[in-house]
Amino acid sequence: MDRVLVVSSSPNAFSVTNGGNLWQRKYSTNNINYPNPSSCVSKASQHKRKTQIEYNLLRSQQPSLNHHYKCIEGGPPNQECNRKYVVKAAPAIPSFDSESDASNPKNIFDSVKNFLVNLYYFCYPYTMFARTLGTISASLLAVEKLSDISPLFFIGLLQVLVAHFFMDLYINGVNQVFDLEIDKINKPYLPLASGKLSIANGVFITVSSAIMSFWLSSIIGSRPLIWSLVLCFLPWTAYSVNVPLLRWKRYPLLAAILMFSSWGVVFPITFFLHMQTFVFKRPAIFPRSLIVSVVFLSLYSLGIALSKDIPDIEGDTKFGVRSLAAHLGPKRVFWICVSLFETAFGVALLAGATSSACLWIKIAMGVGNAVLASILWYQIKYIDLTSPASTISFYKLNWKLLCVAYFLLALIR
């Protein structure tokens, strides 16, 4: 790599002057005589080639440019001169090492991998997975015969899944952006709170996701889908954004109603109507199976909304968010949540037992919901309400049980 000679008055790196006991032997290459450094410095700009040759000779004699040399300027031997000239090697052209590292396929792969991992945790994967299964479950409620499960059905399902994927990214993103300081206490593992994802990138992902969601829905042209996105965007923005009259998460009743209305009412009804009216071109109806799903999900989503605040009491209290768990205490809210979950499983079990479907569906509904209720009841005795890790595991357990319940709800007729 080509280098040029940079001369400064710093004492660091490498001092060179004329005469003295440093230059006890003379360098001669092609009859080149070394002038004293004063003339070199003053005429450096006029003698670049000569200076370059001089530097190369010095560099060939010295293993490192970090050595410090003393000199004499017009004085007796061993007398240190008052002025030192520092020779530093600066690259004339940029190094290609960093560029080759950046273009290394392994480094590119690692960067993409790290970004995708951070994006995975940025979007709260368990909520997105549950919402995806909820979309499939509600869409299957519109299936009246086996021939309905056709490419047309899957295209309609994909339309909802993709549009709501970006809306989920927006909802989870805007919550993390405005909860950054709270998450540093409650959820320090999240990408924004841990610093693995910058605020600028988080804001960009959030805003672009909302734009993509509405753009896709406008292209698709399904009114139920557009209403579903609007009814998610507006209240969940009000839930998180910290401006006057908003930041609804500070009010326990509003936060619970928001969770209940989105997961219990908006999602199942709009997903069903999208498939029923837009895909299958049938009149809008509200069958028994849809009503049972709405009742079950309303109870269950209310329990999830309340249980979410139990592990977040410390951070919420510090930043003035008076959740119901902080107001009533974790133990009382915990048992309210357990009651709501068990009641929801009981409703689904009763609906399956009284269904007009075939016997195997009744058995599946009865046994399935009984097993889910038993798992929940068995696990609650291991929950330590004083441990955030334990209460978080309880919260995630409820999402896992909901994912299984979605399969059972799709069987109700």
TrEMBL record:
<feature type="transmembrane region" description="Helical">
    <location>
        <begin position="224"/>
        <end position="241"/>
    </location>
</feature>
<feature type="transmembrane region" description="Helical">
    <location>
        <begin position="392"/>
        <end position="412"/>
    </location>
</feature>
<keyword id="KW-0808">Transferase</keyword>
<feature type="transmembrane region" description="Helical">
    <location>
        <begin position="119"/>
        <end position="143"/>
    </location>
</feature>
<dbReference type="InterPro" id="IPR000537">
    <property type="entry name" value="UbiA_prenyltransferase"/>
</dbReference>
<keyword id="KW-0812">Transmembrane</keyword>
<dbReference type="GO" id="GO:0016765">
    <property type="term" value="F:transferase activity, transferring alkyl or aryl (other than methyl) groups"/>
</dbReference>
<keyword id="KW-0472">Membrane</keyword>
<keyword id="KW-1133">Transmembrane helix</keyword>
<feature type="transmembrane region" description="Helical">
    <location>
        <begin position="359"/>
        <end position="380"/>
    </location>
</feature>
<feature type="transmembrane region" description="Helical">
    <location>
        <begin position="152"/>
        <end position="171"/>
    </location>
</feature>
<feature type="transmembrane region" description="Helical">
    <location>
        <begin position="253"/>
        <end position="273"/>
    </location>
</feature>
<feature type="transmembrane region" description="Helical">
    <location>
        <begin position="285"/>
        <end position="306"/>
    </location>
</feature>
<protein>
    <submittedName>
        <fullName>Putative prenyltransferase</fullName>
    </submittedName>
</protein>
<dbReference type="GO" id="GO:0031969">
    <property type="term" value="C:chloroplast membrane"/>
</dbReference>
<dbReference type="InterPro" id="IPR044878">
    <property type="entry name" value="UbiA_sf"/>
</dbReference>
<comment type="similarity">
    <text>Belongs to the UbiA prenyltransferase family.</text>
</comment>
<dbReference type="Pfam" id="PF01040">
    <property type="entry name" value="UbiA"/>
</dbReference>
<feature type="transmembrane region" description="Helical">
    <location>
        <begin position="197"/>
        <end position="217"/>
    </location>
</feature>
